[in-house]
Amino acid sequence: MWIYEKKLQYPVRVSTCNPTLAKYLVEQYGGADGELSAALRYLNQRYSIPDKVIGLLTDIGTEEFAHLEMIATMIYKLTKDATPEMMKAAGLGDHYAIHDNALYYENSSGVPWTASYIQAKGDPIADLYEDIAAEEKARATYQWIINLSDDPDLNDGLRFLREREIIHSQRFREAVEILKDEQGKKIFF
Amino acid sequence: MFTLYKTWHPIASPFDPCKPILEKTYSTPPNIYMGFQPPNLPQFSPQEALRAGTLWKPFYDPYFNPFEKAKGGIPR
Amino acid sequence: MKQIPPEYYQMMEQLQAVDFVLVELTLYLDTHPDDLEAIKQFNHYVKERKTIKKAFESQFGPLQQFGNSYSGHPWNWNEAPWPWQV
């Protein structure tokens, strides 16, 4: 089972009320390479992957939920108390008409999250290569959002999340090495 | 000199209407060079690690908006 | 309007820092299960986390529930602030 902790992984701050930035950030909430996709992808792959890498998929999948909560916090803070006028000016008029200021699992263009964003091929190498690609794509998405943002506090949190993609990619690459190994044991010391 | 950001120079045609970007940059993060992580890599303190987003200094690769002034970040 | 004291942020960040080291070491050990030095460091921070968690909870209430934290009276798990509200 999972246990919730009343704590963010990283102290999230944003400088201004800015629904436009929230619109971009939603990509990492309910987009193809977002945190929801990542968490569900890794946790779902666990059931058909060799035992040696189940722990890693479990732990990275769990950390992704912590990142999902950080993204939610950023979106929540950027849109909290924003008026319908402000939402409209940010291109979120159609979002507002459906959801008020509620968060929703959709991408930055308003397309609802779909399971077709994730794969489960059942082949360990195919699945881990997908995971490595997903981490690199999420890293790139964070770069583009940082480029769009002039909010230094938001960018600080986004830099943290981008760095986590680098570490996750590293671990998935190591998982591939573990599965490649002839003896089932990697000698690296 | 080794760098985590590489550059290239796209063709600029006289018929390209936008102001040409003469040099483009892309990220080549440390994880693609590391191979299997060796033991005992130099570490940040817990407080620094949280701010950096990693415990290990060789993985630290902060990304700044090229349009904003870089704030620096944690020295390696 | 409910005000959040500055100590909340200080202690929370202390906990976030130690917990972050534990996350990093967990992922590392998932692929490096034989690294004894890393395991020693991990266990050291497990102990440190317990101390900080106890101090934080005595001031600001339970961090986890389903029995992973003690409860005050009245039941204080569902009291604000929640993490995204601070």
First CA to last CA of chain B: what distance? 16 Å
How many domains is the backbone of chain A divided into? 1
Rounded to an integer, what's the Rg of chain B over CA atoms? Answer: 17 Å
Tally of separate helices of chain B: 2
Integer tally of domains of chain B: 1
Produce a short descriptive summary.
Chain A has 189 residues and is an all-alpha fold. Helix content of chain A is 61%, strand content 0%. Chain A is built from eight helices and no strands.
What secondary-structure arrangement, pairings included, does this model have?
The complex is a heterotrimer of chains A (189), B (76) and C (86).
Chain A: H1 19-25, H2 27-30, H3 35-45, H4 54-79, H5 84-89, H6 93-99, H7 124-148, H8 152-180
Helix pairs in contact in A: 1-4, 3-4, 3-7, 4-8, 7-8
Chain B: E1 5-8, E2 24-27, H1 31-34, H2 46-52
Chain C: H1 6-31, H2 36-60
Q: What would your notes on this structure say?
A:
- The complex is a heterotrimer of chains A (189), B (76) and C (86).
- Chain A is built from 8 helices and no strands.
- Chain A is an all-alpha fold and 189 residues long.
- The radius of gyration of chain A is 18 Å and the shape is elongated.
- The two termini of chain A are 35 Å apart.
- Chain B has 76 residues and is low in regular secondary structure.
- The radius of gyration of chain B is 17 Å and the shape is elongated.
- Chain C is mainly alpha-helical and 86 residues long.
- Chain C is 59% helix and 0% strand.
- In chain C, α1 packs antiparallel against α2.
- The two termini of chain C are 13 Å apart.
- Chains A and B meet through α7 and α8 of A and α1 and α2 of B.
Structure characteristics:
heterotrimer; A: 189 residues; mainly alpha; Ferritin; elongated; B: 76 residues; little secondary structure; two-stranded antiparallel sheet
